[in-house]
């Protein structure tokens, strides 16, 4: 599938000369070696106003970024998993306040880190069960081992939960292992980015009676025409997969990271609803259009419009923003940003110092990919590259600056 420009930008309120600034700006990242290549798509009211590629998907092979380049989207998997869960919610299969131990009994008696060291942690019983809405909002107390900001992160790494899970573990075994580790905080009392959406993926499996990949294919990818989105890339398509890079600590130049990157070329032992998918710009564009249109695309309705509006409201207790509710940020700025059921939500763009609309929702991935959906301006935007970690450069905020300054109606 193609993501070619489908209309005159003037017709939908964009200044073509201002849109051209996007390419000029991001080319610099490739020309000076900080990125190997990128792909950007900007649309309004379902029409693509700007679509561009630049640089190489594999610098060492000299292979250019093309329309059908495959990208590791990592945490941009999370919104898809959240949509899958809410499809089951619409069927009455669970309530958001339900304790997850109803389906995952390993979480019946979780404990919470209180104090102590990595070698001698002290934990206390959870006073509140982990509920489904805690998983969807990252308020469960689950964390990531690789962020390395707390004793609990260290306990995760010691148990084999770093960038992945213990060798050979499937999703069921990984979830059982996570349940044995202490929570970072009492459920519902703070926000912390972590494996909540991976546990949500396991919950989907148990409630639906299907493997996560089967559910995604049957209920989401096939109806939305996302024909290129998958859990790994097999040999016939391996050349389409962009290489993964990381910045050189001294020069900042993008250096190939095959140690992590090659994982996308083999079938995973576990299906990560939090970060396991590979996709294309064309496929994820279709997903953003489904979101913009209130849960429907080309006659396929996956969610009701009121459900999607509910998901993209701020669900943090007391209506607080992430800055006042989170000890640490990851994949997002915190000021003026709330969190819904699977998406960050803009409450006020001023504190973040980046133009956007109140009610815009978004997320990104570890390799610097990103998307946003602005229901007010009816704008969607996609950024694909493969530089890990995503905090290396302010690519996302710069793209927002350039897109919103090109809107002139």
TrEMBL record:
Pfam families: Beta-lactamase
Domain Beta-lactamase-related: 22-396
Tree of life domain: Bacteria
The protein's name: CubicO group peptidase, beta-lactamase class C family
């Amino acid at each position: 599938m193609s993501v070619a420009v489908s209309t005159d930008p003037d017709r939908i309120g964009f200044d073509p000369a201002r849109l051209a600034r996007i390419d000029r700006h991001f080319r610099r990242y490739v020309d000076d070696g900080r990125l190997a290549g990128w792909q950007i798509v900007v649309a309004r009211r379902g029409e693509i106003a700007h679509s561009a590629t630049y640089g190489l998907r594999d610098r060492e092979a000299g292979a250019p970024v093309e329309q059908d380049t495959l990208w590791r989207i990592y945490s941009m998997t999370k919104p898809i998993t959240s949509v899958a869960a809410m499809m089951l919610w619409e069927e009455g299969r669970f309530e958001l306040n339900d304790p997850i131990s109803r389906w995952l009994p390993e979480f019946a008696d979780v404990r919470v880190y209180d104090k102590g060291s990595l070698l001698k942690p002290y934990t206390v019983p959870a006073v509140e069960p982990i509920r489904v809405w805690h998983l969807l909002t990252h308020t469960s107390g689950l964390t990531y081992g690789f962020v390395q900001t707390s004793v609990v992160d260290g306990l995760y790494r010691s148990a084999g939960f770093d960038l992945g899970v213990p060798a050979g573990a499937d999703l069921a075994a990984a979830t059982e292992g996570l349940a044995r580790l202490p929570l970072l905080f009492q459920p519902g009392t703070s926000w912390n980015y972590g494996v909540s959406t991976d546990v949500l993926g396991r919950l989907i499996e148990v409630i639906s009676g299907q493997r996560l990949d089967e559910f995604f294919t049957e209920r989401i990818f096939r109806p939305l025409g996302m024909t290129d989105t998958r859990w790994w890339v097999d040999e016939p398509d391996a050349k389409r997969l962009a290489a993964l890079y990381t910045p050189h600590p001294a020069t900042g130049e993008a250096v190939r990271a095959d140690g992590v990157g090659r994982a996308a070329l083999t079938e995973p032992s576990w299906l990560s609803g939090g970060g396991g998918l590979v996709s294309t710009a064309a496929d994820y564009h279709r997903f953003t259009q489904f979101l913009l249109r209130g849960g429907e695309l080309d006659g396929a309705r996956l969610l009701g419009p009121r459900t999607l509006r509910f998901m993209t409201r701020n669900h943090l207790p007391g209506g607080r923003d992430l800055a006042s509710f989170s000890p640490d940020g990851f994949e997002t700025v915190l000021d003026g940003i709330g969190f819904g059921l699977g998406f960050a939500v803009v409450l006020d763009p001023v504190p973040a110092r980046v133009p956007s609309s109140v009610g815009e929702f978004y997320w990104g991935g570890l390799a610097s990919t990103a998307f946003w959906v602005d229901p007010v301006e009816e704008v969607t935007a996609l950024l694909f590259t493969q530089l890990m970690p995503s905090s290396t450069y302010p690519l996302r905020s710069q793209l927002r600056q350039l897109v919103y300054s090109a809107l002139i109606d």
